[in-house]
Amino acid sequence: MKSYDIELALINLPKKELQEISKVLPAGYLVEDRSNKGWGIVIRLDSENELESLNDQVKAFITGVLPIKKWMELSSPVLRVACFNDKLTCTINLEDFELFVSLKIKLEISIYPVT
After folding, report:
1. Closest to 56 (Cα-Cα) out of 13, 4, 107
2. What would the pLDDT profile of 103-114 be if each residue is shown by its tens digit?
3. How does pLDDT run across 63-83, given as a tens digit for each residue?
């Protein structure tokens, strides 16, 4: 069962940038325009990775999106993490993420109980 969902939203970025962003991201990343919902251009993985800890998954995700750093600087980036089990341990060590500070990436964490 998938336990975490991680995505990066680039809010206030022109829609025309979507194609260019898609070209520079590594394989496995999907880019969607969700601007009509107010969520901006959203980047996520199209499949699960094999990493167990949420911290390792976030590190791997952020490393993968580094090629779009210039677009992150032009937007209001938000990293959204959804945890789909209220009994999971959700730890993210922000001191490991200098990129968060340098690019002023906001972090949203949501926990959804599984019934």
Report:
1. 4
2. 788 888 888 877
3. 889 899 999 999 999 999 888
Residue with tokens 């980036």: 77
CA gap 83, 112 in Å, rounded: 6
Element (H, E) at 80: strand 76-83
Smallest CA-to-CA distance from 38 within 4, 13, 2 is with 13
Contact between residue 12 and residue 73 where contact means Cβ atoms under 8 Å apart = no
Single-letter code of the amino acid located at 76 = S
Burial class (CB in 10 A: 0-12, 13-18, 19+), 107: middle
CB 40 within 8 Å of CB 34 = yes
Whether 80 and 108 have beta carbons less than 8 Å apart is answered as yes
Q: How far apart are CA 29 and CA 40, in angstroms?
A: 16
**Residue 56 near residue 70 (C-beta atoms within 8 A):** no
Written as six digits, the tokens of 102 are 């340098």
